[in-house]
């Protein structure tokens, strides 16, 4: 059969039907599995066959449906679902390195990812080099023959810098390092990270995959060899598995993922365009805008889409930003993203509060910067809401 497109995979990928022939995926809310005989139990512990399970920390039919579905969408050989995005990042990194290994990562990272690298890995004897992800020479200098893993967010949070994946992957592969990409902002729909050179792709499915603010989840995607050989032993013994209930929610989220993120990205572009040149704004950052510093790269790496998040900077700093947030009538103040509801965040005082000022300056996280995750509301209502809140803040 021909390879399925992403929309077909979203709806049918990985489906397992029970003897009842249900239409919606069954939720197997079970920790364990019954064996007909003691011999059958023994055999299953010796070797796990296709569609055989022994314990939900190792795998579960609902979770397996989710893993196969998202692997099919991403074009990956296999996937392992995790309790959260951070369990996925931790699993991908910890399972791949040992004391004495060298890791290179882009500095502009989600705070908890930075904690895993700078605090946990370093504490266990991994050597870490952090680079400015946009600086090609810095990557070339940092990656050396003993580099084991290269890690970065394909699009950084909250300033939406786009890292040149094929370039960094080329350097990494030349020394035999594996490339792990935290791909949240690209989503499994816009992403072609594996094709562009990533070896391992990680998502927080808490974001667009759920997309309706309900469950935490994460997933690691890669070759069968990496997922089952390297990652699974680590995760199944350390307890990072996704709950079957959350896997069911994520499965249903996947069915509408393409429709949602495309609608969100379309609105995001219109909103970014409408905000350009607005009085009181010093910057509008959106990879889909032609004036974005990595616009061409973003278009190549994200199937022509700019993503679902827009950032902008108010000239009036924190005072103006807070006034604007408080004046919004539709857009809610929260720190998630990828949701059906539009969500605004002031990174300097929330998600990135703990960074030292100097680090905030390096990353461009100014007092006037806000991050807006575009939801599924009417685009014009969102534009009007931002505009009325901006005039209230001036
Ligand atoms: C949210 C997020 C994470 C962490 O995911 P959780 O599901 O909250 O654990 C990691 N990386 C990026 C880029 C994120 O946006």
Short description:
The chain is an alpha/beta fold. It has helices at 6-12, 38-46, 61-74, 85-94, 111-123, 136-142, 165-174, 187-190, 193-196, 224-238, 244-255, 257-275, 295-301, 317-327, 357-363, 379-393, and strands at 78-82, 102-106, 127-131, 147-153, 178-182, 200-204, 218-222, 281-285, 309-314, 332-333, 343-345, 369-373.
Walk me through the structure.
It comes from Actibacterium atlanticum. One of its GO terms (cellular component) is cytoplasm. Its EC number is 2.5.1.-. With 394 residues, this protein is an alpha/beta fold. It has two domains: 6-254, Aspartate Aminotransferase, domain 2; 257-393, Aspartate Aminotransferase, domain 1, CATH 3.90.1150.10. 42% of the residues lie in helices and 15% in strands. The protein is built from 16 helices and twelve strands. The chain has helices spanning 6-12, 38-46, 61-74, 85-94, 111-123, 136-142, 165-174, 187-190, 193-196, 224-238, 244-255, 257-275, 295-301, 317-327, 357-363, 379-393, and strands spanning 78-82, 102-106, 127-131, 147-153, 178-182, 200-204, 218-222, 281-285, 309-314, 332-333, 343-345, 369-373. The strands form two sheets. The chain has a seven-stranded mixed sheet, with helices on both faces. A five-stranded mixed sheet has the order 8-9-12-11-10. Helix 1 (6-12) runs antiparallel to helix 11 and helix 14 crosses helix 16 (379-393). The N and C termini lie far apart (59 Å). The structure holds pyridoxal-5'-phosphate (PLP).
């Amino acid at each position: 059969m021909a390879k399925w497109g992403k929309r077909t995979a979203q709806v049918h990928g990985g489906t397992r039907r029970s003897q009842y022939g249900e239409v919606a995926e069954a939720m197997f809310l079970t920790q364990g599995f019954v064996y007909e005989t003691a011999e059958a139990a023994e055999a299953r512990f010796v070797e796990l066959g296709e569609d055989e399970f022994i314990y939900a920390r190792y795998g579960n039919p609902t979770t397996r449906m989710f893993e196969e579905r998202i692997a099919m969408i991403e074009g990956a050989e296999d996937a392992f679902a995790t309790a959260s995005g951070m369990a996925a990042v931790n699993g991908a990194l910890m399972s791949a390195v040992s004391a004495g290994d060298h890791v290179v990562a882009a500095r502009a990272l989600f705070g908890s990812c930075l904690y895993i690298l700078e605090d946990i890995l370093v504490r266990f004897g991994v050597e870490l080099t952090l680079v400015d992800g946009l600086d090609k020479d810095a990557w070339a200098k940092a990656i050396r023959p003993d580099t084991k893993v290269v890690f970065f967010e394909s699009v950084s949070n909250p300033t939406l810098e786009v890292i040149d994946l094929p370039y960094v992957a080329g350097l990494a592969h030349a020394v035999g390092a594996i490339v792990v990409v935290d791909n949240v902002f690209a989503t499994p729909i816009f992403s072609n990270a594996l094709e562009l050179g990533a070896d391992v792709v990680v998502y927080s499915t808490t974001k667009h995959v759920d997309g309706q603010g309900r469950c935490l989840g994460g997933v690691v995607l890669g070759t069968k060899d990496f997922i089952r050989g390297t990652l699974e032993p680590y995760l199944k013994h350390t307890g990072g598995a996704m709950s079957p209930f959350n896997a069911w929610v994520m499965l249903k989220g996947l069915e509408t993922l393409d429709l949602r993120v495309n609608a969100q990205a379309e609105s995001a572009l219109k909103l970014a365009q409408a905000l350009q040149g607005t009085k009181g704004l010093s910057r509008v950052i959106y990879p889909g805008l032609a004036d974005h510093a990595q616009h061409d790269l973003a278009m190549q790496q994200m199937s022509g889409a700019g993503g679902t998040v827009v950032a902008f900077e108010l000239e009036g700093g924190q005072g103006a930003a807070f006034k604007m947030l408080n004046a919004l009538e539709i857009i809610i103040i929260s720190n998630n993203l990828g949701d059906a509801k539009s969500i605004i965040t002031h990174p300097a005082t929330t998600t990135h509060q703990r960074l030292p000022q100097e680090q905030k300056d390096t990353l461009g996280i100014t007092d006037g910067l806000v991050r807006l995750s575009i939801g599924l509301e009417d685009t014009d209502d969102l534009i009007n809401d931002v505009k009325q809140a901006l005039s209230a803040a001036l």
